[in-house]
Each structure stands twice: as structure tokens, then as C-alpha cells.
Write a structure and sequence with these properties.
The protein is mainly α and about 525 residues long. Among the domains are: about 1-200 and about 505-515, Serine Threonine Protein Phosphatase 5, Tetratricopeptide repeat; about 290-375, no CATH class. About 45% of the residues lie in helices and about 5% in strands. The chain is built from 21 helices and 8 strands. The chain has helices at about 10-15, 35, 40-50, 60-70, 85-95, 105-125, 135-160, 185-200, 215-230, 235-245, 290, 305-315, 320-325, 385-395, 400-415, 425-440, 445-450, 460-465, 470-475, 480-485, 510-515, and strands at about 75-80, 270-275, 305, 325-330, 355, 380, 455, 455-460. Strands 1-3 form a two-stranded antiparallel ribbon. Strands 2-6 form a two-stranded antiparallel ribbon. A two-stranded antiparallel ribbon has the order 4-5. Helix 14 (about 385-395) packs antiparallel against helix 15.
Length: about 525
């Protein structure tokens, strides 16, 4: 929320700045007006392009690594890198003495609000600009979608946050003017922005190929369905997801391995995907293949799959998704004939496994192979997720037949039989299990565990804590040779989880200090 002070102008003029702290204290040397900034159609489009930065910033740690830490804080992953002592990361991944001053929370918070500020400028000012009307409406739709996206990320992580929907270049609002809104109020804004975006945005098929990656009508509908799912408004989630299904814009990839295939950008299954292209001069490529990769393969060994996740695939007999989700030490890499015995650095990698979805096969690596130079796009919403949203909402809405049909669609692709007699809690659990297997390591698991409820209690309470299933597995049942041998990361991960505290993360302490306490902290932090 520092962006609500004088630095808001630096954000607008210099949205390519990568520093997270130093620039915040720089004096304003000049202050161009909005008319000067938004002086042409090209300038307005470029400004809207900049509003996408908060989705996936072009630096590895400001947003991208935060999302990986969220997967580290689930039962699907370990933090992984046992070569470096990083209590700042481990404390979050293990729910152990989480630091309210963590730079990860602070930068993620600030970058989401940076994106929100850019959206606010466009939404507020574009009406007075001399632009083609169709383009104007599309750009409003894009920024409405993005503002909803950013607030959804904030409310999922922190609970209620300050709502800012206007921009005044004369008043330069200070943080003291803001306080936290309730979760209900934040969700109301998200829903309205997405509804507006649905009315304004084109379909994916109506975009030129050069514009793929922009927000679409289907993306707005899909996120609205997911928001309804989080809010347990089952009938509305079903209805909105069904509109996406009936649009005919999307389909499952025939082969699961093609979903995250570097040669298949913006595939038929993609609903919202951020595009990357390699350019070592400007470092505008992706990061995940390096940050999640093996130390002996140019990577950093962060966010490594757990044997607990691998066991879930094996218990289900799900070899098709397993081979395209997890690479294990000493085994061949599926889809990369140049790597017949992968070195996952077991002495430096807690589980001796890495994420196959973000792995770049040897034949498709540019030189240098480094963070910020990877060609793999990042998918935030895909059709399989949408179908599972429909299935889960249908189940809770009392339509088990529809829930089973959509569950079967997902399982048919990977040659798994579906028990069509499933009903009640068995069907619910089957849908939840399918979400885990289908979307593993795609940064959904923590939020699913927090929102899913068993007997009114968040499901994460059953997974973590001293008696949690993941904790008991690792302390009393785990026989994995790699995880037991590498004690560089504590085997008791998650044992200190507190259900009265860890269902959200702490509000960044810097925001509380700057607001002089007007922005309040989450309970028990």
C-alpha cells in the first residue's frame, strides 16, 4: 500500500522498475499528467499491458517465487533446497514462526496493489479519451478483469484488505486514509468487476493471435465461477461454469502431457495464460523451470514434490499424470529423450524430485538457460479446472449426476475408470482428490485445502497440525529413501500449524506501521 502515497506516480511512469524498496523512497523529480501519459491509442494500450505486470512480474522473486512458496506450504511439496539455510522461506512453508515482516508478503501485497492502481487509472480516465469505442470497451473489460484478479489474490491470502477503486493525481492519497474492508466487501467488488468484464470482453476466438494472453470473456466467467465456489454459492458457480462449457471455446487437450508442453502455447485447454518469450537481453522469459529445477540441471531445487503427492498418484494407479507431474532422481524424464537418468541432486534436494510441468526439455532450451529466459508460458486457469469447479459445485448443489459426468471427463483423458455409483461424501472426496491429481504443482492446493470443509471445518486442519495426515505420514509412515536421508529440511513440516491463525497470512507489518494501526493485523499474528 506504499503505492497509495507519492510513489504512485513512479509506478505509473516507471512500471518497469524492478526494485522493491529503494525506489519507494525516491523523491518525485517530475510529475507528468495523466493526459500526457495516456496521450495516444498506442500509449493507452501500452499502459494496459503494464497493468498485467502484477499477474506475473518479470522478475523471479517478487510474485513468481511467492506463488511457489504457497505450494511449499501444502502437502504436495517440500521447500526443497537443503543446500541453503533459508528460515525466511521455511517458516512460511512449515507454518512455524511466520514473520509478519516477511519481504515475500510485503512485495506480493505491493505488486498486487500496483496492478490495481494501474487498473484504476484506466477505468477512471479512459471514458474521456479519444479512442475507438470497441477498443475502449475492451480495455475497460481487461482492467476490470485484472482488478478482480488482483483482489482475488489478496483476499485468498490475507482476508479482508483495503479497497481502492479511484485515483486522484492531485490529492496523492496517503495510506492513513485507508483501512481494511471485510472479506464480503472485497468479494462483492471482485464479483461486480468480473460481471462487468464478462459483458465487455471478447471471446478467445475473437482475438488475433498476437493478442492471445489477454483477458477474455471466458476467463472472466471462469474466475467468477471460481469465486462463487470459494463463496459456496453453488448454484451460481454451476451456472457460470456451464456458460463457459456451452461456449465451445475450450476443450481438454487429448493428451494430458500437452497441457504444459512448451511447444503448445495457448492450447485449446487454456483459459487464462501469461505468455513468455525468451530474450536474454531484456530477461522477459519465464522462471519456474529454473527455480523449481535441479541444482545439477541449472536449477535451484525449490518447491520440490513430496513423496506424499507421488503416493497419491500411485495409490490411484495414475501413471499418465504422474509421469508428466513428477521427475524422480535416477529415472528417465518423460518427453525428453535426451535425459534418460535424471540427476535430482538428492544430497541437496529434500525429496530428490522436481516438477515436470515446469521442466524444459533439452531440445527446447535457449542459451543461456537461466531464470528470466525460459519460453514456457504460465497457465492460471484451464478447462480441466473449470470442469472440476462445475463438478464440485454440482455435487454441493444436489446434482450428483452432473458432478459424476464431469469427473468422468477428467478421468477418461488419463485412462482411469470412474465408479459411476459414487454418491455422498465418497463422491465429494473423489472430486477433491481429482483436483489434487489433475492440478498438482500448479499453485492451487493450499487454497483448496483452506476453502474445502469437512463437518464445517477447513480441510487443511486435517492435513497439518500435530495430528495431521501429512505430519503423521512423514513422522511415522514415510519409507522414502530420499526424504528420510536428507534431514536438511525438518521431517515434521506442518506440525505447528494453527487453525486459529494460519487460514490466512499476516498483513505485511510495514502496512500496519505506515497506517499507524488503522490497518489491523490478522488474529494471532
Amino acid at each position: 500500500m506504499k503505492l497509495l502515497s507519492k510513489t504512485i506516480f513512479l509506478i505509473i511512469v516507471g512500471f518497469g522498475i524492478s526494485s522493491c524498496k529503494d525506489y519507494l523512497d525516491e523523491p518525485i523529480r517530475s510529475k507528468p499528467t495523466l493526459n500526457e501519459i495516456l496521450s495516444s491509442e498506442e500509449a493507452v494500450v501500452a499502459f494496459v499491458n503494464g497493468a498485467y505486470d502484477g499477474v506475473q512480474e518479470n522478475d523471479w522473486w517478487q510474485i513468481n517465487f511467492y506463488r511457489q512458496i504457497m505450494d511449499m506450504a501444502s502437502d504436495d511439496c517440500w521447500a526443497g533446497n537443503t543446500e541453503q539455510s533459508r528460515p525466511d522461506i521455511i517458516s512460511i512453508a512449515h507454518f512455524n514462526n511466520v514473520d509478519i515482516g516477511s519481504s515475500y508478503f510485503e512485495t506480493f501485497w505491493n505488486y498486487q496493489f500496483r496492478g490495481i492502481t494501474k487498473c484504476n487509472v484506466v477505468i477512471q480516465e479512459i471514458g474521456a479519451l479519444d479512442l475507438d469505442e470497441d477498443l475502449k470497451q475492451r480495455l475497460i473489460g481487461e482492467t476490470k478483469f485484472l482488478r478482480a484478479f488482483y483482489y482475488f489474490q489478496l483476499v485468498k491470502n490475507f482476508g479482508g484488505v483495503p479497497i481502492v477503486t479511484t485515483f486522484d493525481e492531485l490529492l496523492e492519497p496517503e495510506i492513513l486514509e485507508y483501512e481494511r474492508s471485510s472479506e464480503d466487501e472485497v468479494y462483492a467488488l471482485i464479483e461486480q468487476d468480473l460481471l462487468d468484464a464478462v459483458d465487455l470482453l471478447p471471446l478467445k476466438s475473437e482475438y488475433a493471435s498476437s493478442d492471445l494472453g489477454r483477458a477474455t470473456k471466458g476467463a472472466a466467467q471462469s474466475y467468477l465461477a471460481k469465486v462463487y465456489l470459494f463463496r459456496e454459492r453453488w448454484d451460481e458457480a454451476v451456472a457460470m461454469a456451464n456458460e463457459v462449457i456451452l461456449s465451445g471455446e475450450y476443450a481438454l487437450e487429448p493428451q494430458f502431457e500437452d497441457v504444459w508442453n512448451v511447444t503448445n502455447p495457448n492450447g485449446v485447454e487454456t483459459i487464462f495464460e501469461i505468455r513468455y518469450r525468451t530474450d536474454p537481453t531484456y530477461r522477459i522469459g519465464g522462471y519456474y523451470g529454473v527455480t523449481t529445477g535441479s541444482r545439477d540441471d541449472g536449477g535451484w531445487n525449490w518447491c520440490v514434490p513430496s513423496s506424499y503427492l507421488e503416493k497419491a498418484f500411485l495409490d490411484e494407479g495414475d501413471n499418465i499424470r504422474l509421469r508428466s507431474t513428477i521427475i524422480k532422481h535416477g529415472e528417465p524424464v518423460y518427453g525428453d529423450p535426451d535425459n534418460t537418468s535424471f540427476n535430482a541432486s538428492p544430497d541437496r534436494n529434500k525429496s530428490a524430485r522436481i516438477n515436470r510441468k515446469f521442466y524444459i526439455p533439452q531440445a527446447y532450451r535457449d542459451s543461456p538457460y537461466t531464470q528470466g529466459n525460459l519460453p514456457l508460458n504460465h497457465i492460471f486457469m484451464r478447462y480441466a479446472d473449470l470442469l472440476l469447479i462445475y463438478a464440485e459445485a454440482s455435487y454441493f448443489d444436489g446434482n450428483e449426476t452432473e458432478a459424476l459426468n464431469k469427473l468422468k471427463m477428467i478421468r477418461d483423458r488419463v485412462s482411469l475408470a470412474t465408479d459411476m455409483s459414487l454418491s455422498g461424501e465418497d463422491l465429494r472426496d473423489a472430486i477433491w482428490k481429482e483436483r489434487r491429481l489433475e492440478l498438482a504443482l500448479e499453485q492451487h492446493r493450499l487454497y483448496d485445502l483452506r476453502r474445502q470443509k469437512v463437518n464445517g471445518e477447513p480441510r487443511i486442519n486435517q492435513v497439518f497440525g500435530p495430528n495431521g495426515s501429512f505430519v503423521k505420514y512423514n513422522l511415522t509412515e514415510n519409507t522414502d529413501q530420499y526424504e528420510l536421508a536428507n534431514k536438511g529440511e525438518d521431517q515434521s513440516k506442518g506440525s505447528t500449524f494453527d487453525p486459529d491463525k494460519h487460514l490466512v497470512w499476516p498483513i505485511p507489518n510495514s502496512e500496519i506501521i505506515l497506517s499507524q494501526g488503522k490497518i489491523t493485523q490478522n488474529p494471532n499474528y
